[in-house]
Amino acid sequence: MRIRAAQNDAEIASLRLQALKDAYRILALNFGIPPTQFKWRYEDKDKKLTPFATYTPQQFYHEVVNDALDDYLALYSIPTLPFYKRYEIDLDKAVEDRPNMNFVNCPLDTLKGLAKACLLDNRPVWFGCAVEQESVRDRGLMMPESTTTSPCTTWTCSCRERSSSRRTPAPRTTTWSSPGST
């Protein structure tokens, strides 16, 4: 990538800005230009619709989401790592100035049970999985038969057990991911 060949911070900043512009253009062409404001309402616990309120995306995040995303914990199922331990993935961040990604490794049956419980309780469940073992990038293919290797043996990451001196995990566990599992 060109960013690795950059000679100074200004060049890196310029390349990052161009990458963001390119990503924005692709998303806008495919999904439309993001709204500057929108109207939203919801059904309360008594099954009554609230009146519409108008928000900007930032207002909605701060007033409605209200940093509740920190209440979620990623759960993975990686059979080659000990279960029921917390791990941190080195150099893997969702946002540049945030800590590395971390997760608790659980058996697949635990993930399925938690997902079912959340869905039955009308709570969201996010799912993601590693699919690189099913893709042939140079040919633009994405299909299960593209390789013969097992998903459990091809998924690799640089992980370490998370130190117990760090922040205690949040009690809610409605977000999960299961790399290499089906």
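the 2nd protein, sequnce then structure:
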Amino acid sequence: MSAVLGPEMTPQRRATALRAFHTLPREDRRDAVALARQGRRHPDERVAAVAYWWAAAVLQPRWYNRMPFWLPMAVGLVLFALAFATDFWSLAILGFLVVVVGGGQVRQRMSTTPLLMMMRPPTAGDVPDEELRA
């Protein structure tokens, strides 16, 4: 799973995109993600635009979004092996936490990448930050 990243957004715009998505009804959010996984857009252009910008806000170009999905799993397994080898069980707990966080990252990428791969609707009435500066 390669790292698909959204456009760079200011913190205010990112917060606005996250709030807008969470104000949508739960059914619309679920439908937008499910339809994107099938390669289809949500029929309501407003919901499609909000879902796109939510995915762009979640998948910002940060180090943890650029990291390969297998890396936290490998680090967790190494920590487990060290815990068994040294009989230092705090490392096993740390390894478990690293694996859980890595699983959360994989789940996040799996749910947001299809939304981000959709083409942004031209009639969304939404302008990315780069176009605002021009």
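The first helix runs from residue 11 to 23. The chain has seven helices and no strands.
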